[in-house]
Specification:
The longest helix is centred in the N-terminal third of the chain and has 33 residues. 46% of the residues are buried. The N terminus and C terminus are likely disordered. A hairpin with a 3-residue loop joins β1 and β2. This protein is mostly helical and 486 residues long.
């Protein structure tokens, strides 16, 4: 099959998918994301990994070194394989079978986390960290392929709307899980009233950390349900009849050709650079929010868990907001607006401490009675920090959703997997920039607030870069993507 015929058949298939009834396909695509996001929030960020660090290992320094080492190894493997995986599957067409392979490999690993016992009678700490690193790699593979299905499953014209809606729905589902965990397992015995039970539900033991260990099997079920809907209803790319061996060999060549051709595809190259710069700042900011809140506001476990619940509620609203803005403004303009709002809110966050509101208003805690008798957020600076930081998270998530939709809208459909893989590698290889700059600034100024200035700078540079990118207009407006322009 010639290159021209192959590309033409893929493009015709993508356009044909736009004309089909997309309701079940769209919601099944969203349903897979609903299963994926809880893994990121509950396992990777807020609950299980901190349990491994604080309890299973017990030594924060050694835990950080082990996690970093295994994460680097997984990142190198991803960088060396993701572009070729995307390119090979661009050649073969359908992504669903391979997503199924990766998910079926994830499920036993997730279930095995139940044996990460605090007394170390089950899996060793090294085994658990190895499992987490492998899970991260498998989820990265499946995420790239799921993102590549956005166009066929939802339709190019609907990508901006449903990229945001999917993140909104997924975060709402995650919020529901976290509120249930807070109510049924974290608060019993610590808070009376509001229907909180006296003991953790189902006879689970807090001392044995049953709640944390049960998250793995629970998320395995959620991911499997999401996969089932995706396989049954989602519209996939049309098959090209290329064998796996031929697709892999051709994919290797395609990646090299893709990299060499980037200077001739100036519009995509400009977006790649802008996305890499603002993405580095954005993802670093998301990872450091909990550490910043803990250090600057003096918050501890219960405060941080409540903080996380509120932030994820706002994150879900941010995903829904992105869907609205992408549709009404066009994806590129929405992305620029979302980044500007994120920068403004970050600057406001940096000016809020337990004794100061927005840089200028001093707040004497001794002179003001608590706002309420509850266990968290009892002063105006705390409430202000909570609302500003959560709003910043909403716009950060909206930026993620719009950025994903922008890729789908400006990249040729027949090369979407290849470009998503390339974007993933670029983001991975430059992920050191923001942390390094933050480390230098924090050490020099001896201030967590001033240490985050590089994040605002990177977000600003990325925003300026987007001004020179074409495409991502409101559908119905004149398109100026310039794809492939020499």
């Amino acid at each position: 099959m010639s290159e021209e015929t192959l590309a033409s058949s893929r493009l015709v298939a993508a356009r044909a998918a736009e004309g089909q009834s997309l309701s079940l396909s769209t919601w099944s695509w969203i349903g897979y994301e609903v299963g994926r996001v809880p893994y990121v929030v509950l396992i990777k960020i807020y609950i299980f990994t901190p349990y491994v660090t604080k309890v299973l290992i017990g030594d924060p320094v050694m835990a950080q070194a082990l996690l970093a080492g295994f994460a680097v190894a997984a990142g190198v493997i991803a960088a060396l394989t993701v572009p070729f995986l995307g390119a090979a599957l661009d050649r073969m067409g359908p992504r669903k079978p391979w997503i199924a392979v990766f998910v079926l490999l994830e499920i036993p690993l997730l279930i095995s986390l139940w044996w990460a016992k605090p007394d170390r009678s089950g899996l060793s700490a090294t085994a658990v960290i190895s499992i987490l690193a492998l899970l991260g790699l498998l989820f990265a593979y499946a995420e790239i392929l799921h993102n590549a299905m956005l166009g066929p499953s939802v339709g190019i014209r609907r990508a901006g709307r449903y990229s945001g809606i999917s993140l909104g729905v997924a975060n709402l589902f995650t919020v529901a899980i976290m509120i249930f965990l807070l109510w049924g397992f974290a608060l019993p015995g610590k808070l009376h009233g509001l229907g909180v039970p006296d003991q953790p539900l189902f006879g689970l033991s807090r001392a044995d950390h049953d709640m944390e260990r049960l998250l793995g099997p629970f998320i395995a079920v959620v991911v499997f349900v999401g996969l089932t809907g995706l396989l049954r209803f989602a519209i996939d790319a049309a098959p090209t009849r290329e064998t796996l061996g031929t697709a892999v060999r051709s994919g290797l060549r395609d990646v090299l050709v893709l990299i060499r051709s980037l200077p001739q595809q100036r519009n995509i190259l400009k977006f790649l650079i802008a996305r890499t710069v603002y993405g580095d700042g954005l993802y670093t900011l998301i990872k450091l929010e909990g550490i910043y809140a803990s250090g600057v506001m003096g918050w501890h476990a219960l405060d941080l868990l409540a903080f996380a619940v509120v932030k994820i509620i706002f994150a879900s609203l941010g995903g829904l907001l992105a869907g609205i803005l992408n549709t009404r403004m066009g994806t590129r303009r929405a992305l620029i607006l979302e980044l500007c709002c994120t920068i403004l809110l970050l600057v406001m966050v940096l000016g809020t401490t337990p004794t100061r509101l927005l840089y200028f208003w001093q707040y004497d805690l001794a002179a003001h009675a608590p706002l309420w008798s509850g266990p968290v957020f009892r002063s105006w600076p705390e409430v202000a920090f909570l609302l500003i930081s959560s709003s910043m998270t909403a716009f950060a998530v909206a930026t993620t959703a719009s950025g994903r939709a922008m890729v789908v809208e400006i990249v040729p459909p027949e090369r979407l997997g290849s470009f998503l893989g390339l974007f993933h590698v670029t983001a991975s290889t430059t992920a050191w920039m923001a942390p390094a700059m933050i480390g230098v600034f924090t050490a020099y100024f001896h201030s967590q607030s001033l240490g985050l200035i590089p994040v605002a700078v990177l977000l600003g540079i990325g925003t300026i870069g987007l001004l020179f990118v074409e495409g991502g207009d409101r559908h119905g407006a004149k398109q100026r993507s310039g794809i492939g322009r020499a």
